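QA checklist item 7 of 12: single-chain prediction sanity check.
[x] sequence parsed
[x] length recorded as 455
[x] structure emitted
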Amino acid sequence: MASITTSGMNLDVQGLAQQLAAADRAPEDARLTRQEQTLTVQMSGLGTLKGALSTFQSALNSLKTVSAFNVRSASVGDDDYFTATADSSSAPGNYDIEVLDLAKAHQLASGAFAAADTVVGTGTLSISQGTNTFTVDIDSTNNTLAGIRDAINKNANNTGVQATLIREQNGTHLVLSSIKTGAANAITVTSSGGDGGLSTLTDANGLKKFVQTQPAQDAHITVAGFDHYSDSNTIDDAIDGVTLSLKKKTDAQTPIPLTVTSDDAGITKNVQNFVNAFNALQKTFASLRSFDPTSGKTGALFGDALLRQVEDQMRLDLSTPVSGVAAGYNSLANVGITRQTDGTLAVDTTKLQKAITTGNGAVAQLFGSTDGVAARIYNHIDAQLATGAALDYRNTSIQAGLKDIQDSRDALDARMALQQSRYVQQFSALDAMLSQMQQTSSYLTQQLASLPKAG
């Protein structure tokens, strides 16, 4: 009689359970991964877009006012005597300037003492400079020439007098210098109390009294024949918008010409800076919405409605005429700035230069007035980057979506752990059943083998 045989399975229960659970997990895991990758790419694209808008807005910050384009240039006939700068508030014009006197700081010097450690005396020094007066107490700890110097310089109320020692062949002098120029900042010194030794510095008949070595003096200039005085050699209130830095006196009755003109090169540079900044932004737009038909690769925001909205607003801002500007100069195209097929801007320098020279400030109004191109774009970007605006809302939504995906992954992990546990139980039961069947098979085989063979 034929024998019945079975073989034990020796199942890898854990391995089989893991493989089946992984197979169950794969479709859902792949779906979540695709969603996560899509949202991550979109978030990166939004970050790039926001960064590009912020960079462009920063460039506009110095271009969104009329004064930014009312650039002035100041030239001096001979800058050995003075130099000049002009800001946007200055008016073009020609001026004859004479420098009759330079502003000087008051300086007093004591008589000669034997050395820095020579004892002068004790008491109180009262020092005035301009409207500021402070007192210096001199006692036995600082009654030398050097001690008095240090006490003056370290006094908390001293805001305008510098003390120093100057040594020459016949001795050492205590010198007081005003740190401010001008006649109003003259220094006076009086003394009182103590042992009377300080009076040698301050009394009219003092043996070591302070004498004037340089007078306190105002600067004196004439502009177009009119006198102007200043306590400083930097004068910014003689001609509107012009700052003069005096260097030395002019020759008698020999004025130096100053010319203030519109700085056309500076205006052109500002326009070009605007165009360059916009073109950098446009390249970012193009990259974010790009599509390569050969490879099928797309930009991070390909087909995105929010990106289209931002671009549409930018195109509108660039093309809308500016109110309040003469018709021949009220658009970028009028002054030679045109949009190319790739979305970037190009400048016709000849046309721009003509607008600058003949437009009577129209280019400045075109860019920097309240409704000017630079000003309106700046304000719109400000709104786009604001908290709660569309870009911020989209970013928040993406972050929420990524959190939902992570929550789904956590839930999937929990379900798959439970499913794998079920598979372990099922395969363990199957393995036990197969083991029992093998034992039964072996028993039957033995029983059959013991039966007498048929004759």
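[x] summary fact logged: The chain has three domains: 10-71+264-445, 72-102+219-262, 105-214.
[ ] second reviewer sign-off
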